Amino acid sequence: MSAEPEESVVQQGREDAPGAGAGNERTPRFEEQRGGAGTPDNFQRLWTPHRMAYIKGENKPTGGGAGDGCPFCEIPKMTDEEGLVVARGESVFAVLNLYPYNSGHLMVVPYRHVADYADLEEPEYLELAAFTQRSLTALRKASGAQGFNVGMNLGLVAGAGIAAHLHQHVVPRWGGDTNFMPVVGHTKVLPQLLRDTRQMLADAWPHDA
Description:
Layout: H1 30-34, H2 51-55, H3 71-74, H4 80-83, E1 85-88, E2 92-96, E3 106-110, H5 122-143, E4 147-151, E5 168-173, H6 180-183, H7 194-204
Antiparallel strand pairs: 1-2, 2-3, 3-5, 4-5
Helix pairs in contact: 5-7
């Protein structure tokens, strides 16, 4: 990366103002210099190549069984840092979403490979409810969340990305988090690395006395 300071976005791709002096030349655009953009224009682009893994469906199960590459079955075998696990219980665990809607986007997941909420056993749904409460507490403490979207997508037709293994989403919300970037630009800006978020929430997670 160049050590020279880049010019302001306002100046990139602009002509010098008429009458500013002889020999006015077009201000060079960094995208053109680096070969990033095809057709020269005045748009700046936020490149997110890591999203291609999600678009292409990488790391998704090849089937509906627990042994068909289900990530929710593999994550508990990893360390907390590798799997982005925030907390572990007897029947469920809390883990960061690898493709979050907002920073701190958690999922509460049963260890058992089960697709339907109605098929959960009593210890599982009781602890899932308790972990959902703890997720809210941890997110409020760590990030000052002002609201939440909490819920499940059961089945592919309901929008579940991994329908074979039930998981409940806990998405923190703040005033102004739906702005022109996601609404107009279809781009979400996340200010913190997932591993840093995991540590922050793990530190704020409420434990039994």
